[in-house]
Amino acid sequence: SKEYTRACGVIPGGVNSPVRAFKSVGGDPVLIEKAKGSKITDIDGNTYIDYVASWGPMILGHAHETIVEAISKAAKKGTSYGAPTVQETQMAELICQMVPSVEMVRMVNSGTEATMSAIRLARAYTRKSKIVKFEGCYHGHADFFLIKAGSGAMTLGVPDSPGVTENIAKDTLSATYNDLESVNTLFKTQGNEIAAIIVEPVAGNMGVVLPRPGFLQGLREIADKNNCLLIFDEVITGFRLSIGGAQEYYNVMPDLTTLGKIIGGGLPVGAYGGKKEIMQMLAPAGPVYQAGTLSGNPLAMASGLAMLGILKNTPDFYTKLDKKAELFANGLAQNLKQAGIPGVINRVGSMLTMFFTESSKVETFDEVMTSNRERYAKYFRLCLDAGIYLAPSQFEASFVSAAHTDEDIEKTLKASLGAMKQL
Ligand code: KE4
Protein backbone atom coordinates (compact mmCIF):
# COMPACT_ATOMS: atom_id res chain seq x y z
CA SER A 1 0.00 0.00 0.00
CA LYS A 2 1.10 3.59 -0.60
CA GLU A 3 1.22 4.47 3.11
CA TYR A 4 3.10 1.30 4.02
CA THR A 5 5.66 1.90 1.26
CA ARG A 6 6.04 5.44 2.55
CA ALA A 7 6.63 4.13 6.09
CA CYS A 8 9.28 1.71 4.80
CA GLY A 9 11.24 4.68 3.49
CA VAL A 10 11.84 6.05 6.95
CA ILE A 11 11.15 3.22 9.45
CA PRO A 12 12.92 -0.17 9.24
CA GLY A 13 10.35 -2.55 7.77
CA GLY A 14 7.81 0.27 8.04
CA VAL A 15 7.00 -0.67 11.62
CA ASN A 16 8.18 0.09 15.12
CA SER A 17 7.91 -3.55 16.16
CA PRO A 18 8.63 -6.47 13.78
CA VAL A 19 5.53 -8.62 14.34
CA ARG A 20 3.34 -5.77 13.03
CA ALA A 21 4.78 -6.10 9.52
CA PHE A 22 2.74 -9.23 8.66
CA LYS A 23 5.97 -10.95 7.53
CA SER A 24 4.81 -14.42 8.57
CA VAL A 25 1.35 -14.06 7.00
CA GLY A 26 2.40 -12.19 3.85
CA GLY A 27 1.05 -9.04 2.28
CA ASP A 28 1.26 -5.48 3.59
CA PRO A 29 -0.01 -4.67 7.07
CA VAL A 30 -3.09 -2.48 7.35
CA LEU A 31 -2.41 0.88 8.96
CA ILE A 32 -4.82 1.70 11.79
CA GLU A 33 -6.64 5.00 12.05
CA LYS A 34 -8.64 4.47 15.27
CA ALA A 35 -10.26 1.90 17.56
CA LYS A 36 -13.23 1.68 19.91
CA GLY A 37 -14.41 -1.26 22.01
CA SER A 38 -13.83 -4.52 20.14
CA LYS A 39 -13.32 -2.78 16.79
CA ILE A 40 -10.32 -1.29 15.01
CA THR A 41 -10.59 0.79 11.82
CA ASP A 42 -7.86 1.13 9.18
CA ILE A 43 -6.93 4.29 7.28
CA ASP A 44 -9.21 3.23 4.40
CA GLY A 45 -12.21 3.06 6.74
CA ASN A 46 -12.41 -0.75 6.94
CA THR A 47 -13.48 -1.91 10.40
CA TYR A 48 -12.39 -5.20 11.96
CA ILE A 49 -13.26 -7.14 15.08
CA ASP A 50 -9.93 -7.11 16.94
CA TYR A 51 -8.38 -10.14 18.68
CA VAL A 52 -4.83 -8.74 18.90
CA ALA A 53 -5.79 -6.23 21.63
CA SER A 54 -2.45 -4.45 21.12
CA TRP A 55 -0.85 -7.84 22.11
CA GLY A 56 -2.64 -7.93 25.44
CA PRO A 57 -3.28 -4.51 27.04
CA MET A 58 -6.79 -3.90 25.73
CA ILE A 59 -8.65 -6.30 28.05
CA LEU A 60 -11.44 -3.71 28.39
CA GLY A 61 -11.52 -3.00 24.65
CA HIS A 62 -10.18 0.11 22.94
CA ALA A 63 -10.72 3.72 24.03
CA HIS A 64 -12.61 2.79 27.20
CA GLU A 65 -14.23 6.05 28.31
CA THR A 66 -13.09 5.84 31.94
CA ILE A 67 -9.48 5.35 30.86
CA VAL A 68 -9.59 8.06 28.20
CA GLU A 69 -11.13 10.42 30.74
CA ALA A 70 -8.43 9.62 33.32
CA ILE A 71 -5.64 10.20 30.81
CA SER A 72 -7.03 13.48 29.51
CA LYS A 73 -7.64 14.73 33.04
CA ALA A 74 -4.05 13.88 34.00
CA ALA A 75 -2.64 15.42 30.82
CA LYS A 76 -4.10 18.78 31.75
CA LYS A 77 -1.95 18.70 34.90
CA GLY A 78 1.24 18.05 32.94
CA THR A 79 2.54 14.84 31.37
CA SER A 80 5.76 14.20 33.30
CA TYR A 81 7.53 15.81 36.23
CA GLY A 82 10.53 13.54 36.83
CA ALA A 83 9.65 13.74 40.50
CA PRO A 84 7.71 11.44 42.87
CA THR A 85 3.91 11.66 42.90
CA VAL A 86 1.21 10.18 45.14
CA GLN A 87 -0.24 8.40 42.10
CA GLU A 88 2.91 6.23 41.89
CA THR A 89 2.45 5.22 45.52
CA GLN A 90 -1.22 4.43 44.87
CA MET A 91 -0.26 2.30 41.85
CA ALA A 92 2.40 0.43 43.83
CA GLU A 93 -0.03 -0.20 46.70
CA LEU A 94 -2.66 -1.49 44.27
CA ILE A 95 -0.21 -3.86 42.58
CA CYS A 96 1.03 -5.14 45.96
CA GLN A 97 -2.60 -5.70 46.98
CA MET A 98 -3.54 -7.53 43.76
CA VAL A 99 -0.46 -9.64 42.96
CA PRO A 100 -0.01 -12.15 45.81
CA SER A 101 3.80 -12.48 45.85
CA VAL A 102 4.57 -8.78 45.33
CA GLU A 103 5.47 -6.77 48.44
CA MET A 104 7.35 -3.94 46.69
CA VAL A 105 7.39 -2.82 43.07
CA ARG A 106 9.34 -0.58 40.68
CA MET A 107 7.64 1.00 37.66
CA VAL A 108 9.42 1.04 34.28
CA ASN A 109 8.28 1.75 30.70
CA SER A 110 8.06 -1.64 29.00
CA GLY A 111 8.08 -5.37 29.58
CA THR A 112 11.63 -5.51 28.26
CA GLU A 113 12.82 -3.06 30.89
CA ALA A 114 11.00 -5.04 33.57
CA THR A 115 12.55 -8.41 32.68
CA MET A 116 16.00 -6.96 31.99
CA SER A 117 16.01 -5.27 35.40
CA ALA A 118 14.64 -8.32 37.22
CA ILE A 119 17.50 -10.42 35.87
CA ARG A 120 20.09 -7.85 37.00
CA LEU A 121 18.48 -7.82 40.45
CA ALA A 122 18.42 -11.62 40.65
CA ARG A 123 22.11 -11.80 39.71
CA ALA A 124 22.95 -9.21 42.33
CA TYR A 125 20.87 -10.87 45.03
CA THR A 126 22.20 -14.42 44.46
CA ARG A 127 25.68 -13.26 43.35
CA LYS A 128 25.47 -15.78 40.50
CA SER A 129 25.58 -15.05 36.77
CA LYS A 130 23.78 -17.71 34.71
CA ILE A 131 20.05 -17.68 33.93
CA VAL A 132 17.68 -20.33 32.62
CA LYS A 133 14.98 -19.48 30.10
CA PHE A 134 12.75 -21.73 28.00
CA GLU A 135 12.86 -22.23 24.25
CA GLY A 136 9.78 -20.58 22.74
CA CYS A 137 9.31 -18.14 25.61
CA TYR A 138 9.96 -14.45 24.89
CA HIS A 139 10.86 -11.92 27.55
CA GLY A 140 11.56 -8.80 25.49
CA HIS A 141 14.68 -7.92 23.55
CA ALA A 142 17.45 -7.57 26.16
CA ASP A 143 20.64 -9.14 24.75
CA PHE A 144 20.71 -12.08 27.13
CA PHE A 145 17.20 -13.16 26.11
CA LEU A 146 17.94 -13.22 22.36
CA ILE A 147 19.62 -16.60 22.71
CA LYS A 148 18.70 -19.87 21.14
CA ALA A 149 19.26 -23.22 22.73
CA GLY A 150 22.73 -24.60 22.14
CA SER A 151 22.91 -27.89 20.24
CA GLY A 152 22.46 -30.01 23.38
CA ALA A 153 20.79 -28.92 26.61
CA MET A 154 24.23 -28.99 28.24
CA THR A 155 25.83 -26.51 25.89
CA LEU A 156 25.71 -22.80 26.54
CA GLY A 157 23.31 -20.56 24.63
CA VAL A 158 24.22 -19.12 21.26
CA PRO A 159 23.18 -15.65 20.03
CA ASP A 160 19.81 -15.56 18.26
CA SER A 161 20.42 -12.14 16.77
CA PRO A 162 23.41 -10.37 15.26
CA GLY A 163 24.75 -7.84 17.73
CA VAL A 164 24.45 -10.22 20.68
CA THR A 165 27.94 -11.35 21.67
CA GLU A 166 29.12 -14.86 22.58
CA ASN A 167 30.17 -13.35 25.85
CA ILE A 168 26.59 -12.49 26.74
CA ALA A 169 25.17 -15.72 25.31
CA LYS A 170 27.31 -17.94 27.51
CA ASP A 171 25.36 -16.98 30.63
CA THR A 172 21.95 -17.92 29.24
CA LEU A 173 20.95 -21.57 29.40
CA SER A 174 17.90 -22.90 27.55
CA ALA A 175 15.51 -25.53 28.84
CA THR A 176 12.39 -27.13 27.36
CA TYR A 177 9.02 -25.73 28.43
CA ASN A 178 6.92 -28.27 30.35
CA ASP A 179 9.95 -30.55 30.77
CA LEU A 180 11.29 -30.45 34.34
CA GLU A 181 13.97 -33.04 33.47
CA SER A 182 15.55 -30.55 31.04
CA VAL A 183 15.79 -28.07 33.92
CA ASN A 184 17.21 -30.61 36.37
CA THR A 185 19.89 -31.53 33.82
CA LEU A 186 21.12 -27.92 33.78
CA PHE A 187 21.08 -27.62 37.57
CA LYS A 188 22.92 -30.89 38.05
CA THR A 189 26.05 -29.48 36.44
CA GLN A 190 25.65 -25.72 36.73
CA GLY A 191 23.21 -25.20 39.60
CA ASN A 192 25.72 -23.36 41.72
CA GLU A 193 26.09 -20.72 38.99
CA ILE A 194 22.40 -20.17 38.17
CA ALA A 195 20.89 -16.95 39.53
CA ALA A 196 17.38 -17.26 38.14
CA ILE A 197 14.85 -19.27 36.19
CA ILE A 198 12.61 -16.98 34.16
CA VAL A 199 9.41 -18.41 32.68
CA GLU A 200 6.12 -17.31 31.15
CA PRO A 201 3.82 -19.16 33.58
CA VAL A 202 1.50 -19.63 30.61
CA ALA A 203 3.53 -19.38 27.41
CA GLY A 204 2.06 -16.82 25.04
CA ASN A 205 4.94 -16.22 22.63
CA MET A 206 4.99 -19.57 20.89
CA GLY A 207 1.25 -19.38 20.68
CA VAL A 208 -0.56 -20.23 23.93
CA VAL A 209 0.93 -23.29 25.64
CA LEU A 210 -0.36 -24.17 29.10
CA PRO A 211 1.90 -25.34 31.93
CA ARG A 212 1.44 -29.08 32.54
CA PRO A 213 0.18 -29.88 36.05
CA GLY A 214 3.16 -29.72 38.40
CA PHE A 215 5.46 -27.87 36.00
CA LEU A 216 5.34 -24.49 37.76
CA GLN A 217 5.45 -26.09 41.23
CA GLY A 218 8.42 -28.15 40.03
CA LEU A 219 10.27 -25.00 39.03
CA ARG A 220 9.51 -23.53 42.45
CA GLU A 221 11.09 -26.55 44.13
CA ILE A 222 14.17 -26.56 41.87
CA ALA A 223 14.72 -22.86 42.58
CA ASP A 224 14.39 -23.39 46.34
CA LYS A 225 16.83 -26.29 46.31
CA ASN A 226 19.47 -24.33 44.41
CA ASN A 227 19.40 -20.85 45.99
CA CYS A 228 18.08 -19.53 42.69
CA LEU A 229 15.25 -17.06 42.13
CA LEU A 230 12.08 -18.00 40.24
CA ILE A 231 10.88 -15.13 38.03
CA PHE A 232 7.37 -15.26 36.54
CA ASP A 233 7.22 -13.12 33.44
CA GLU A 234 3.57 -12.08 33.71
CA VAL A 235 3.74 -9.34 31.11
CA ILE A 236 0.90 -11.12 29.28
CA THR A 237 -0.75 -13.14 32.07
CA GLY A 238 -0.67 -10.38 34.71
CA PHE A 239 -4.23 -9.09 35.31
CA ARG A 240 -5.23 -11.22 32.27
CA LEU A 241 -5.82 -14.64 33.88
CA SER A 242 -7.15 -13.23 37.15
CA ILE A 243 -6.66 -10.18 39.33
CA GLY A 244 -3.51 -11.83 40.69
CA GLY A 245 -2.38 -13.21 37.33
CA ALA A 246 -1.05 -16.70 36.70
CA GLN A 247 0.56 -16.96 40.14
CA GLU A 248 -2.90 -16.64 41.71
CA TYR A 249 -4.58 -18.77 39.02
CA TYR A 250 -2.11 -21.66 39.53
CA ASN A 251 -1.25 -20.80 43.16
CA VAL A 252 2.53 -20.93 42.63
CA MET A 253 4.50 -18.02 44.06
CA PRO A 254 7.59 -16.66 42.27
CA ASP A 255 10.31 -14.57 43.95
CA LEU A 256 10.01 -11.82 41.35
CA THR A 257 7.21 -10.96 38.93
CA THR A 258 7.46 -8.86 35.80
CA LEU A 259 4.41 -7.00 34.50
CA GLY A 260 3.46 -4.88 31.49
CA LYS A 261 0.71 -4.51 28.86
CA ILE A 262 -2.60 -4.44 30.82
CA ILE A 263 -0.97 -2.60 33.74
CA GLY A 264 -0.71 0.59 31.67
CA GLY A 265 -4.15 0.40 30.10
CA GLY A 266 -2.42 0.77 26.73
CA LEU A 267 0.16 3.39 27.75
CA PRO A 268 3.86 2.46 27.93
CA VAL A 269 4.18 0.85 31.36
CA GLY A 270 6.12 -2.08 32.80
CA ALA A 271 6.83 -3.06 36.37
CA TYR A 272 8.75 -5.61 38.37
CA GLY A 273 8.23 -6.56 41.97
CA GLY A 274 8.54 -9.21 44.61
CA LYS A 275 9.86 -9.79 48.09
CA LYS A 276 10.87 -6.63 49.95
CA GLU A 277 14.19 -8.20 50.92
CA ILE A 278 15.09 -8.55 47.24
CA MET A 279 13.56 -5.28 45.97
CA GLN A 280 15.32 -3.23 48.67
CA MET A 281 18.59 -3.95 46.85
CA LEU A 282 17.51 -1.51 44.11
CA ALA A 283 18.95 1.99 43.94
CA PRO A 284 18.61 4.30 45.70
CA ALA A 285 17.71 2.00 48.60
CA GLY A 286 20.44 -0.43 47.62
CA PRO A 287 23.37 -0.81 45.21
CA VAL A 288 21.67 -2.34 42.14
CA TYR A 289 21.26 0.41 39.59
CA GLN A 290 18.17 0.86 37.41
CA ALA A 291 16.56 4.14 36.33
CA GLY A 292 14.10 5.67 33.83
CA THR A 293 13.20 9.23 32.84
CA LEU A 294 9.52 8.48 32.31
CA SER A 295 9.10 5.62 34.78
CA GLY A 296 5.85 6.00 36.73
CA ASN A 297 4.83 9.07 34.75
CA PRO A 298 1.48 10.66 35.65
CA LEU A 299 -0.35 9.71 32.42
CA ALA A 300 0.65 6.06 32.65
CA MET A 301 -0.27 6.01 36.33
CA ALA A 302 -3.66 7.62 35.68
CA SER A 303 -4.35 5.11 32.91
CA GLY A 304 -3.09 2.15 34.96
CA LEU A 305 -5.02 3.16 38.09
CA ALA A 306 -8.21 3.48 36.04
CA MET A 307 -7.60 0.10 34.36
CA LEU A 308 -6.74 -1.85 37.52
CA GLY A 309 -9.56 -0.14 39.38
CA ILE A 310 -12.12 -1.41 36.87
CA LEU A 311 -10.66 -4.94 36.89
CA LYS A 312 -10.66 -5.03 40.69
CA ASN A 313 -14.12 -3.52 41.23
CA THR A 314 -16.19 -5.08 38.41
CA PRO A 315 -18.06 -8.02 39.97
CA ASP A 316 -17.34 -11.37 38.24
CA PHE A 317 -15.18 -9.61 35.64
CA TYR A 318 -12.98 -12.66 34.96
CA THR A 319 -15.77 -15.25 35.25
CA LYS A 320 -17.76 -13.44 32.58
CA LEU A 321 -14.75 -12.80 30.34
CA ASP A 322 -13.59 -16.43 30.57
CA LYS A 323 -17.11 -17.68 29.77
CA LYS A 324 -17.17 -15.58 26.60
CA ALA A 325 -13.73 -16.86 25.59
CA GLU A 326 -14.81 -20.45 26.26
CA LEU A 327 -17.82 -20.06 23.95
CA PHE A 328 -15.51 -18.60 21.31
CA ALA A 329 -13.02 -21.45 21.61
CA ASN A 330 -15.81 -24.07 21.51
CA GLY A 331 -17.17 -22.43 18.37
CA LEU A 332 -13.74 -22.58 16.73
CA ALA A 333 -13.43 -26.26 17.64
CA GLN A 334 -16.81 -26.93 16.03
CA ASN A 335 -15.70 -25.01 12.94
CA LEU A 336 -12.57 -27.17 12.61
CA LYS A 337 -14.69 -30.33 12.84
CA GLN A 338 -17.29 -29.06 10.39
CA ALA A 339 -14.64 -27.95 7.89
CA GLY A 340 -12.66 -31.17 8.39
CA ILE A 341 -9.49 -29.23 9.28
CA PRO A 342 -7.04 -30.69 11.83
CA GLY A 343 -6.20 -28.25 14.60
CA VAL A 344 -5.62 -27.81 18.33
CA ILE A 345 -7.01 -24.92 20.39
CA ASN A 346 -5.11 -23.98 23.56
CA ARG A 347 -6.92 -21.58 25.84
CA VAL A 348 -6.64 -20.37 29.40
CA GLY A 349 -8.99 -17.58 30.46
CA SER A 350 -9.29 -15.06 27.63
CA MET A 351 -5.99 -15.86 25.86
CA LEU A 352 -5.96 -18.54 23.18
CA THR A 353 -4.27 -19.89 20.05
CA MET A 354 -5.67 -22.19 17.37
CA PHE A 355 -2.79 -24.25 15.94
CA PHE A 356 -3.23 -25.70 12.45
CA THR A 357 -1.51 -28.98 13.24
CA GLU A 358 -2.14 -32.72 12.83
CA SER A 359 -0.75 -33.22 16.32
CA SER A 360 -3.41 -34.24 18.87
CA LYS A 361 -2.04 -31.80 21.43
CA VAL A 362 0.32 -28.81 21.67
CA GLU A 363 2.12 -28.87 25.02
CA THR A 364 5.74 -28.39 23.95
CA PHE A 365 7.80 -26.21 21.64
CA ASP A 366 8.38 -29.21 19.33
CA GLU A 367 4.63 -29.77 19.05
CA VAL A 368 4.13 -26.03 18.37
CA MET A 369 6.59 -26.36 15.50
CA THR A 370 4.40 -28.97 13.77
CA SER A 371 1.99 -26.13 12.90
CA ASN A 372 1.28 -25.41 9.25
CA ARG A 373 2.30 -21.76 8.83
CA GLU A 374 1.15 -21.49 5.23
CA ARG A 375 -2.30 -22.66 6.27
CA TYR A 376 -2.35 -20.16 9.13
CA ALA A 377 -1.27 -17.37 6.75
CA LYS A 378 -4.10 -18.19 4.33
CA TYR A 379 -6.63 -18.40 7.20
CA PHE A 380 -5.40 -15.06 8.57
CA ARG A 381 -5.81 -13.35 5.19
CA LEU A 382 -9.29 -14.79 4.59
CA CYS A 383 -10.40 -13.68 8.06
CA LEU A 384 -8.92 -10.23 7.55
CA ASP A 385 -10.84 -9.87 4.27
CA ALA A 386 -13.97 -10.88 6.21
CA GLY A 387 -13.39 -8.13 8.83
CA ILE A 388 -11.68 -10.19 11.53
CA TYR A 389 -8.26 -9.03 12.77
CA LEU A 390 -6.32 -11.99 14.20
CA ALA A 391 -2.71 -12.11 15.37
CA PRO A 392 -0.55 -11.95 12.18
CA SER A 393 1.44 -14.99 13.33
CA GLN A 394 0.60 -18.57 14.24
CA PHE A 395 2.93 -18.21 17.21
CA GLU A 396 1.15 -15.45 19.09
CA ALA A 397 -1.78 -15.32 21.49
CA SER A 398 -5.20 -13.97 20.59
CA PHE A 399 -7.30 -12.19 23.19
CA VAL A 400 -11.01 -11.76 23.92
CA SER A 401 -11.92 -8.51 25.68
CA ALA A 402 -14.82 -7.40 27.85
CA ALA A 403 -15.94 -5.28 24.88
CA HIS A 404 -16.51 -8.27 22.56
CA THR A 405 -20.29 -8.84 22.23
CA ASP A 406 -22.05 -12.14 21.52
CA GLU A 407 -22.76 -10.70 18.09
CA ASP A 408 -19.02 -10.08 17.54
CA ILE A 409 -18.28 -13.70 18.48
CA GLU A 410 -21.03 -15.01 16.21
CA LYS A 411 -19.81 -12.91 13.27
CA THR A 412 -16.25 -14.09 13.92
CA LEU A 413 -17.22 -17.76 14.03
CA LYS A 414 -19.14 -17.43 10.80
CA ALA A 415 -16.21 -15.75 9.03
CA SER A 416 -13.84 -18.33 10.53
CA LEU A 417 -15.88 -21.25 9.17
CA GLY A 418 -16.03 -19.59 5.76
CA ALA A 419 -12.25 -19.19 5.81
CA MET A 420 -11.63 -22.76 6.96
CA LYS A 421 -13.73 -24.11 4.09
CA GLN A 422 -11.33 -22.43 1.68
CA LEU A 423 -8.15 -23.87 3.23
P1 KE4 B 1 7.63 -5.12 25.67
O1 KE4 B 1 9.07 -4.69 25.84
O2 KE4 B 1 7.30 -5.45 24.23
O3 KE4 B 1 6.63 -4.19 26.33
O4 KE4 B 1 7.47 -6.49 26.50
C1 KE4 B 1 8.31 -7.59 26.20
C2 KE4 B 1 7.63 -8.86 26.65
C3 KE4 B 1 8.05 -9.46 27.82
N1 KE4 B 1 7.47 -10.61 28.27
C4 KE4 B 1 6.45 -11.19 27.59
C5 KE4 B 1 5.85 -12.45 28.13
C6 KE4 B 1 5.97 -10.61 26.38
O5 KE4 B 1 4.96 -11.21 25.71
C7 KE4 B 1 6.56 -9.43 25.90
C8 KE4 B 1 6.11 -8.76 24.61
N2 KE4 B 1 5.20 -9.54 23.81
C9 KE4 B 1 5.24 -9.26 22.39
C10 KE4 B 1 4.38 -10.27 21.63
N3 KE4 B 1 3.58 -11.12 22.43
C11 KE4 B 1 4.77 -7.88 22.15
C12 KE4 B 1 4.48 -7.58 20.69
C13 KE4 B 1 5.66 -6.96 19.99
O6 KE4 B 1 6.82 -7.41 20.18
O7 KE4 B 1 5.40 -6.00 19.22
Detailed description of the structure:
The chain has 14 helices and 16 strands. The chain has 423 residues and is α/β, with parallel strands linked by helices. Helix 2 (65-75) packs antiparallel against helix 10 (298-313), helix 11 (317-339) runs parallel beside helix 14 and helix 13 (373-385) packs across helix 14 (406-420). The structure holds ligand KE4.
Kindly list the characteristics that best describe this protein.
423 residues; alpha/beta; seven-stranded mixed beta sheet; four-stranded mixed beta sheet; 14 helices; 16 strands; binds ligand KE4
- Which value, in Å, is the CA radius of gyration? 21 Å
The ligands bound in this entry are:
ligand KE4
Number of strands: 16
Mean pLDDT: 96
H/E element string?
HEEEHHEHEEEHEHEHEHEEHHHEEHHEEH
User: How much strand?
Assistant: 15-25%
User: Share of helix among residues?
Assistant: 25-40%
Kindly, what is the distance between the CA atoms of the first and last residues, rounded to a whole number of angstroms?
25 Å
Strand order in the sheet with the most strands: 4-12-11-10-9-5-8
Main sheet makeup: 7 strands, mixed
Structural class: alpha/beta
Number of helices: 14
Low-confidence stretches: none
What overall form do the CA principal axes indicate? globular
